[in-house]
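Dock magnesium ion; give full complex structure.
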Amino acid sequence: MEIFKFGGASVKDAEGVKNLANIVRDYKNGELLIVISAMGKITNKLEELNYAYLNQSENAHSIFEEVKHFHFDIIEALFEGKHNPVYDDVANTFVEIDWLLEDEPDNDPDYIYDQIVSIGEVVSTKIVAAWLNETGNKTLWADARNYIKTDNTYREGKVDWDKTNAIIQKELKPLLAQNIIVTQGFIGGTSENYTTTLGREGSDYSAAIFASCLDANALTIWKDVPGVLNADPKWFDETEKIDQLSYHDAIELTYYGATVIHPKTIKPLQNKGIPLFVRSFITPEGNGTAITKENNPLPVPSFIFKVNQALISIFPKDYSFIIEENLSNIFDLFHKHRVKINTMLNSAISFSVSVDDNEEKISKLIDALSAQFTIKYNKNLELVTIRYYNQQTIDRVAVDKDILLEVKSRHTCQMVMKDKNTNR
Ligand code: ASP
Ligand code: MG
């Protein structure tokens, strides 16, 4: 059996849904479970809706109308004559949110977020499952909240692997013999059956969980790029597709910020030796990238860019050395303020880190750090990570840049850089 995962870009309109069905039609390797995200950019819209509702803004109503229209336009383009049960099914899902929006938001905001934002996936999978049935593929819609069991850390549900594994084996596996199964990425359920989400872009991770618990032969993630490239085409004109890479390199690349796959996806697959294919839903005949246990080094250096970085340098106010007395304290503050360190370097009396410059979080963190340390910081920077670097690749990205911090290990070089032409 295999797992397919389709993200929002692949099902952003009726054509996308039809294209997905063609890919499924051409699949000939036996049992299949399909994990799907919310359509297009609906998750962002639902986040806006959630925000408007929490602030009791008048916009909530019109944003929700937009979400409904978006989906019904797609349904109408697919199913003629309103006879298909998907019309009622989707309308009923929306009614649940209508009810929620009628009351004042007096619950935990993260809980409310999950109840609202999760419907993107619920609705997208209802539409796709209906279309697959309509086009002759016997398909069952499965509610991921019954299978992916999490704790109640809303917005960042932690998966209970034992429970999840047991219930998938017992209740989901037998259904695959008779049907293609369509289910949601990104969402899970608590033991009291409340909806949780697994963190933005978490659908890849969901697909890996299903693959692991079902001992799938492969997971294929269908994307709008031909496979894993050695750089994001947004930053580089010339990119190369990597035909095969090791789990290890895939983890490193995604950890440093390659957005092609969610970083949490690889480990569960690696543990069970399940290959991960990244292929294009635009050119499905291409063979994409295979991520497997074969430990070949990357054929070309790979580049990962992160913009909007802040470099924070921390100095003890007394004469103490940074490592001995201060590091645990510093990490504690980063952890408390939920600021993730992208790269770091220490000297005897200083500690420097590069972080995503989230204005609000960072200013609170700096306030907290300033109680004990002298802080210097620099904004509007870029972090470039090169995997399998050499001097030539460093020179290539450093043109017209000042390198403020450089960290090298055997295979990876990270540089925090400032554009020479911007005086900030
Ligand atoms: N729909 C969710 C998001 O946009 C999950 C995903 O696409 O992976 O974050
Ligand atoms: Mg997405």
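Observed: Residues 59-78 form the longest helix (20 residues).
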